[in-house]
Amino acid sequence: MRERTIASHFARAALGGARRLGFDYSNLLSQLGISPELLDEPRARIAPEQFTRLIQNLWLALDDEYLGFGHAPSKPGSFAMMCHASIHCRNLEKALQRGLLFYSLFPQAPRLSLRREDEWVRLSLDDAQLWDPDHFLSESLLVIWHRLGSWMIGQRIRLEQATFSYPRPAHGAEYELLFPCPTTFGAGQSSLVFHSRYLHMPLLQDERTLKHFLERSPADLLSRPDDGDSLSSRLRRLLSRDSTRWPDLEAVAAHLHISPQTLRRHLREEGTSFQALKDQLRRDIAIYHLGRADLSLQQIAEQLGFSEPSAFHRAFKKWTGLTPGAYRAQEQ
Question: Domain named HTH araC/xylS-type: which ranges (predicted)?
Answer without folding.
Answer: 233-330
